[in-house]
Amino acid sequence: MNFVEELKWRGMIQDMTPGTEEQLKKEMTTAYLGIDPTADSLHIGHLVGVMMLRHFQRSGHKPIALIGGATGMIGDPSGKSQERVLIDEPRLRHNQECIKKQLEKFLDFNSNAENAAELVNNYDWMKDFTFLDFIRNIGKLITVNYMMSKDSVKRRFTGENGADGMSFTEFSYQLLQGYDFVYLNSHKNCKLQLGGADQWGNITTGTEMIRKVTGNEAFALTCPLITKADGKKFGKTESGNVWLDKRYTSPYKFYQFWLNVSDEDAEKYIKIFTSLPHDEINALIQEQKEAPHLRPLQKRLAKEITIMVHSQEDYDAAVEASNILFGNATSDSLKKLDEETLLSVFEGVPQFEISLSDLNNGLKASDLFTEKANIFASKGEMRKLVQGGGVSINKEKLTEADGIINSSFLLNNKYILVQRGKKNYYLIIAK
């Protein structure tokens, strides 16, 4: 597989230094991509870079994932208008271990293959660097004029987008990232750095430093920053980042994120965020054009990426949970949901709190749904709908308006799901 051609087809190349494609055709090449370790999970904004490494390895080359332990202590000014909060070494090490576990789902770190992936942390070679050594040996390689010409620096100095200037600490970031490339070039024969389009300035600083230190040739390749069809930032929702760790974003919510992207975005994302071959993707695009209401692109995208990030079991559970709200799921499916998924599925539906002691004693459905929880305006309205088969409790039809509801109906010992008609759901919470 030709890496550059593959990325071009997938819409994943923004800029590339001359000679990059020739280098990759000539020999197995080592490339690295930096990952910010300021959290103990990646989010889907990181996935573009991770997929670049995945395609790189599938093309027969050797990927290095660099955890920016040292650079993470400073903070990259690119795309930022303010300095970030600094983190300490124990937190960095914890974050590194968590991130590696996530990367192992995308990259082969553990085989004996010549192009097995490696994980490195730039803190390991920066921590013993004295300030004087760094200023003498690295600082002299790049002029201030050169550093000031980079867009990420210029924006901060001119106060663009509310930027509040830049400390010397952040100004030095460019030199630190450049030195990473110098170090990996010398110690790992790394000839290529990959990154997002916003990293072009930092990456080319590295290629310039390598040229000055060793005379070696080094290369750069960046991918475009991913946006949604409406121009908004990719990966952000109203509740914040979409994380790869299920502690922060449940597999159900993760699955739903991809399932709900627009047709235009689905066609773009399935190329970027999956390893599906060209002919299969083209067939799905054609299916989508012929029957857009069936959403084959969104369904396949959500399936591939949920299984890759989580598991087949998590994907199956997410599909089953989706069917509860949008399909003909049974009460058994509902009872299998854990509390977090249940609340995710029914997020935003009207909720009513009732006393658990009242439920322990048993209540007539007509009293519960009119007096304790204002689901129906009157008992008459409720009786009429029950007679027509239009009321369900926990996905089972209610046959008697005065039937007794007690704590045996509780899901996860806390919830009762009431459905009025086809689309109106209510969640009763017993406390």
> How is the main sheet built?
6 strands, mixed
Count of separate DSSP helical elements:
21
Anisotropy-based shape: elongated
- Decide which structural class fits the backbone: alpha/beta
Helix content: 40-55%
Low-confidence stretches: 79-83
Strand content: 5-15%
What is the count of β-strands?
15
Terminal-residue CA separation: 59 Å
Task: Tell me what the structure shows.
- The protein is of the alpha/beta class.
- It is 45% helix and 14% strand.
- The protein is built from 21 helices and 15 strands.
- The protein has helices spanning 3-9, 20-26, 47-58, 89-103, 123-126, 131-137, 144-148, 151-158, 168-171, 173-188, 200-213, 251-259, 263-272, 278-290, 296-309, 312-326, 331-336, 339-345, 356-361, 365-372, 379-387, and strands at 15-16, 30-35, 62-67, 118-121, 190-196, 219-223, 236-237, 240-241, 351-354, 363-364, 391-393, 396-397, 404-405, 415-420, 424-430.
- Strands 1-6-5-2-3-4 form a six-stranded mixed β-sheet, with helices on both faces. Strands 9-15-14-11-12 form a five-stranded mixed β-sheet.
- Helix 15 (296-309) crosses helix 16 (312-326).
- Mean pLDDT is 90; it is low at 79-83.
